[in-house]
Design goal:
The chain is 27% helix and 45% strand. By secondary structure, the chain is of the alpha+beta class. The relative contact order is 0.21.
């Protein structure tokens, strides 16, 4: 079972790689890479699912802040590293939904295994 999924990997609407992964503690991390630097933002799977349903989500870590919101054409991720300007990623909604389905499935399997 894959514990991570790529949301985008460069291109016109994606200045770097964006991915989501399940941690060993059952939490989720949004990882954004740009120009060789990787920044991760802890979050919950349910918060990411709510973004797909139209809710806006704000995340923060020692690397900066991150806002996710649903827009026409997909999910807009705006990452603002502390002391720098914002970077914007636009992930098509079908790719976002598929990635979260994989992460949710991995979370369910992880929970079942830990209950045994």
């Amino acid at each position: 079972m894959r514990r991570s999924a790529v949301l985008c990997d460069g291109g016109a609407n994606c200045p770097g790689k964006a991915s989501v992964k399940l941690t060993h503690g059952g939490r989720c991390e949004l990882a954004l890479e740009n120009e060789g630097e990787s920044r991760s933002f802890p979050c919950s799977v349910s918060a990411l699912i709510n973004v797909g349903l139209g809710a806006r989500t704000h995340l923060a870590s020692e690397y900066g802040s991150c806002t996710l919101s649903r827009k026409p054409g997909g999910v807009k991720i705006t990452m603002t590293p502390w002391g720098f300007g914002p970077l914007q990623y636009l992930v098509p909604l079908d790719i976002y939904a598929e990635a979260l389905a994989r992460i949710s499935e991995a979370r369910i399997v992880q929970t079942k295994v830990s209950l045994r």
